[in-house]
UniProtKB/TrEMBL annotation:
Lineage: Bacteria, Pseudomonadati, Pseudomonadota, Alphaproteobacteria, Rhodobacterales
Name of the protein in its database record: Heme oxygenase
Entries under InterPro entries matching the protein: Haem_Oase-like_multi-hlx
Source species of the chain: Thalassococcus halodurans
Domain of life: Bacteria
């Protein structure tokens, strides 16, 4: 039997954190402006935090694209960024961000359909982000890299811990956005 690799460990170890975040994000009503606003604010704040960390080059490129789209959508409606104290350890492994963000782009198609089914999409609100490319090549690269990495090493531990922290970051940002957190002026 082949030795388990990092991708398998991430699936098992992070199933609860991943599901918890998915459940929270499912509470955003993407058919209404308030739900799309909270969704965009959560992502914009999360990418702001992640962009301050060391990233894989392809993840950095993806974040730059997505962050610009989010800022454009929010600015078009004079919506200020989420004011948050959330942070992430600066030594978070770059592969942790790659796993969470590239993986999230897979689920973005489902969220896009929910958005398209709602009246708010007809106004164009959220369009830049919701129509962003899926960046599937980043996910494929992650899979290739993670399938070659053993599951039980100090590096693997650091990647799993970092991904868990990123899931927690986004969960907390979702909570803030859903609970009507204070926005910057």
């Amino acid at each position: 039997m082949p030795e388990p690799h990092l991708r398998q460990r991430l699936i098992v170890d992070l199933a609860t954190s991943h599901q918890r975040l998915d459940d929270r994000v499912s509470q955003f009503d993407l058919g209404k402006k308030s739900g799309v606003t909270a969704f965009l604010l959560m992502h914009e704040a999360g990418l702001s935090v992640l962009s301050r960390n060391q990233l894989c080059p392809d993840t950095s490129t993806m974040i730059t694209d997505l962050h610009a789209r989010l800022k454009s959508d929010l600015a078009a409606h004079q919506i200020a960024s989420l004011s948050t104290n959330q942070s992430l350890a600066t030594d978070t492994h770059p592969m942790a961000a790659k796993y969470v963000l590239a993986g999230s782009r897979l689920g973005a198609e489902v969220l896009k359909r929910r958005w398209l089914d709602g009246a708010v999409s007809k106004t164009g609100f959220g369009e830049a982000y919701m129509r962003a490319p899926r960046h599937i090549e980043v996910w494929k690269q992650f899979l290739a890299e993670a399938s070659l990495m053993p599951a039980q090493t100090k590096v693997a531990d650091k990647i799993v811990d970092g991904a868990s922290a990123i899931f927690d970051l986004y969960f907390n940002l979702a909570e803030e956005a859903l609970n009507g957190a204070v926005f910057n002026a």
